[in-house]
Amino acid sequence: KFIETRPKGFIDASAQSFVRTWETMVKTVDGFRKLVMAEVSFKTIGGPLAIGKVASDSFNTSLSYFFQLMALISVNLGVINLFPIPVLDGGHIMFIFLEIINRGPISRRKMEIAQQVGLSLLLMLMVGAIFNDFSRFF
Questions:
Q1: Measuring CA to CA, how many Å separate 42 from each of 9, 36, 95, 98, 108?
Q2: Which terminal residue of the chain, N or C, has fewer Cβ atoms less than 10 Å from its own Cβ?
Q3: Tens of pLDDT along 20-70?
Q4: Alpha carbon 115 to chain centroid, angstroms
C-alpha cells in the first residue's frame, strides 16, 4: 500500500516547516512539564537504544518518516538544551541574566555548586533512560 503525497512549493513548505517546528517545541516543553509534575511516568523516557529502535523502524517504514523522526529529535535536543539547567546552554543564559540582575559576577563557588547540581540531574536522567532501555529490550 502506497501513500501518495503532493509536492509543495518552497513557500508552502517553509510555512509548514515553521508551524511543525513550533508545534514540536511546544510538545517538548509540555512533555517535560508533565514529566516533572509526575503526570507521565518516568518509564516512558527512552535512551539511545529506544531511539535506535524507533529510527530503525521508521527507516524500514519510509524514508519520509525517518527524516521526520530525525527532525523531531533535533528540535527536542535544541529545546532541551535551552532549559535553565546550569550545565546546558540555557543555564549559561540564566547565569548571564543573574549577573545582569546582580550587576556583577556570581561567585565562583556558587557557579561550581550549580554546575555540579545540573550535571548530577543530567546524569540521573541519562542513567534512568538507559536503565529503561535495558529493562524494555532485555
A1: 41, 9, 29, 31, 34
A2: N
A3: 999 999 999 999 899 889 998 888 889 999 999 999 999 999 898 999 999
A4: 19
CB 59 within 8 A of CB 90: no
Where does the pLDDT of residue 138 fall: very low under 50, low under 70, confident under 90, or very high at 90 and above? confident
Question: DSSP secondary structure string, 60-111?
Answer: HH-HHHHHHHHHHHHHHHHHHHTSS-TTSHHHHHHHHHHHHHHTSPPPHHHH
pLDDT of 81 strictly over 90: yes
Length of the chain: 138
Q: Is the pLDDT of residue 10 over 80?
A: yes
Contacts of 46 (CB under 8 A, 6+ apart): 54, 129, 132, 133, 136
pLDDT in tens, 101-111: 999 998 999 99
The verdict on pTM exceeding 0.90 is: no
CA dihedral 81, 44, 129, 58 (to 10 degrees): -80
